[in-house]
Design goal:
Elements lengths: L8 E5 L7 E5 L5 E5 L5 E7 L9 E9 L5 E7 L5 E7 L22
């Protein structure tokens, strides 16, 4: 991400009040950058999602509203910690299944 040839790692953190930050660190400890533009960042991944921007970006899910109403967003942050994309995820349609378990296809048994 920062061009030093050593891969960083990233995670959502609780710097201020519960999962409100994205943190990128070098594997030996120094923090590369921190961003506070999320409410609760999850499922963070590095990738060259925007080839028009230098280096890798960080994408993830932001749990904007954890109430019964629920509201999620996906975000993108550039290699210098600046937000460069955000989109609210529409809620599921009424009656849509919300289970995280696979409900289709045949059951399998480990051999
Ligand atoms: Ca590095
Ligand atoms: Ca890029």
């Amino acid at each position: 991400m920062n061009g030093d040839g050593v891969e960083e790692f990233a995670f959502g953190g609780a710097e201020r009040a519960g999962g409100d930050s994205i943190n990128v660190y070098e594997p030996d400890g120094p923090r590369v950058w921190q961003n506070f533009d999320t409410v609760e960042a999850q499922q963070i991944a590095f990738g060259d999602f925007r080839p028009d921007l230098p280096g890798l970006e960080v994408a993830g899910l932001d749990r904007v509203d954890r109430s019964a109403n629920g509201k999620d967003a996906v975000f993108l942050i550039d290699s210098a910690a600046a937000p460069c994309g955000r989109r609210t995820v529409p809620p599921p349609a009424a009656g849509a299944p919300r289970s995280s378990r696979c409900t289709t296809g045949p059951a399998t048994t480990p051999t």
